[in-house]
Amino acid sequence: MRNCDKALFIVRTPFQAWFCERLIERLGISCYDFLYITHNNSQEDIFYYNNLSPGARNSSYVFVKPASFDVFTNLKLFYRVKGWFSKDRYDRVYMASINSYIINSLACSFHDAELFSFDDGTANLVEDGPYYTSDSSFRSRFYSTIFGARPVEQVRKKISRHYTIYRGFNNIVEEARLSYFDGWVLNRRGKGDYSHSAKSKRYFIGAPFHEVMSKAEIDSMLRLLGALRIDGYIRHPREIQPLPIDAPIIDKGGRIAEDVIIDCSSGCRVELYGYLSTVMINLKDYADKKVVFVPEGNASSRLSELALDSGCEIVYV
């Protein structure tokens, strides 16, 4: 990449921002603008925005609280970022959330820019998910029309290169357009090289459980966890209220869960428990044991297949 190229990074999660930090460093990008969109305004959002914004020519942190009806959320977000549609020409645009109406529309509005994408987490690996096929509902087609978003199939074709940490998995573009980064690989610690090899630390990975599980399924998971000694609870940025688990909530200091777990484990073996999340996939080569709780109705889903492919043990609730 030429140092004088103008780049735009559009992110909306802490993990995406973490990935952008590594992209900027690895590709030697010195001239970039940075737009951070969030519906959570979490400690993690603020932490990574503050990390990336000082190096940007222009940057904005846009927090839009979700409305009762998502059409109002999208309209407010469109109004808040409309100034970015008239920014100077960009040579390259980097984004992860290709299915987001506003981000999709903004990225594709720079017709002469080369489009690059990077991982958003497990969404990139679920081949029947929203990053592979456009929602054909009337609502989705209506939103795409009023906001000027392109079908995700068109966006995927436009992507010049996708940057990923997921080796051995299919992604939103074919192998020839993939570039790999190392994530949290085992050789950071060395297999069998533990400073406290006899000890394991168990971490419960939080999630917005009420969005993905029923109350009965959550209660079933809690009963199973009650028989374990959990060393730390890692809260999710969208987790409004932590579950009643007998474990200390770890102060992440704004960092993503993966980095916090590695630091807190202090060379001990690591066991992870929770819903199938991006953290479970990202630490698949680092954690010695990964137990995911999956609703019985999802037993034959792509999520269950992904859990098994990542070396997770599945417990149906």
UniProtKB/TrEMBL annotation:
InterPro entries: Glyco_transf_52. Gene3D superfamilies: 3.30.370.20. GO terms for molecular function: transferase activity. Keywords: Transferase. It holds the Pfam family Glyco_transf_52. This is Glycosyl transferase family 52.
